[in-house]
Design goal:
Oligomer: single chain
CATH topology of the largest domain: Transferase(Phosphotransferase), domain 1
Helix content: 25-40%
Largest sheet: 5 strands, antiparallel
Low-confidence stretches: 1-11, 359-363
Number of domains: 3
CATH superfamily of the largest domain: Transferase(Phosphotransferase) domain 1
CATH architecture of the largest domain: Orthogonal Bundle
Mean pLDDT: 88
Radius of gyration: 21 Å
Strand order of the largest sheet: 1-2-3-5-4
Shape: globular
Strand content: 15-25%
Order of helices and strands: EEEHEEEHHEEEEHHHHEEHEHH
Structural class: alpha+beta
Number of strands: 13
Amino acid sequence: MSPTPPNNMSTGTDNPPEVGARWRDGVVLKRDVFSTIERGVFAAPEGDVPAILRRLDQIPWWSKPLAKHLFNRERRALAIAGKLGSAPRLLFAGETVLVRSFIDGVPLYMAKPVGDAGYFRDAQRALRDLQRALITHNDLNKPQNWLRGADGKPYMTDFQLAAVFKKRSKLFRLMAYEDLRHLLKHKRKYVPEALTASEKRILARKTLPTRIWMATGKRVYYLITRGIFGFVDREGGGTRLAHDAPRMIEALTKSPHVHGAAVVAYPDNRVNTGLYAFVETTAMSDIEAGKLIEGLDIRMPEHIQVVDVLPRDAGGDVRTEILQLIAMNQLDQLTPLINTPAELAVVARIIANRKNLKDRVSA
């Protein structure tokens, strides 16, 4: 599949001054109060490099101290981890801009490596290399922070919570243990039959700080992030994906003419995170499908697209990972996820009529 990319790419005029025209063709992947993340091309000393840019110049003033702290943690960790082969390389780090190499792959929750024991053997090897370098990631419980590369290998990303140690202290060992336990939780989900007896014991035993955190600090964390900031992570989808999307799907599928529906999140320049509804029907238009949602006391999705068939897995579940990539215009990441020629034809028809063509930086 080689679909035509959307227009409205950044030409450098909207770029942070620290990188200027060295950054181009940027497309927004995520926006929140701590940073904006873009994917594009960076002019490195060795030539143009596909890359990811994190910028702090568009965040609110009140989040800047914490955002800067997270920014510095990522910079320190990537300066070392990027040389190990299982994390992005640090290409540039300024005061408000960090550029890391782009890894051609998809997050674990999209890749779904069911039965792929080799992936998790390599992931444990990569994690050991990270720990030999005295780095703990501290956020590997999130499946979006593990990538399955186009080469089938595991990669770690998003090092904002990472810690770099000077020695193998007790704290380092505790945090390293938790990194391994979180990786094993993913392994249990996708290849439970490959778990060893010792791995099962690790899964069954949380460290004391983790138990204390889950009983106390985690509740405060949720109070602040969900109550004050309104965050609900859910693969970066936010509160609307968690709270409004199920109501939209329920309203849509009540119609006898709708055979299925899915709502996914994508970055939107106007509202930070937009919702994109895909509706499986041959009996109505996009506008008519939207009227099924209008009666709800929630904001309408930014895009509604009627499709004749939704992509589904062997069990009949909608493949929302494919739809999310389409909504985000990350079309070049679809190829590893397409399983059959028939599925390719379904996806191609959806791509041909997709609605979000204005998520580029300059839009």
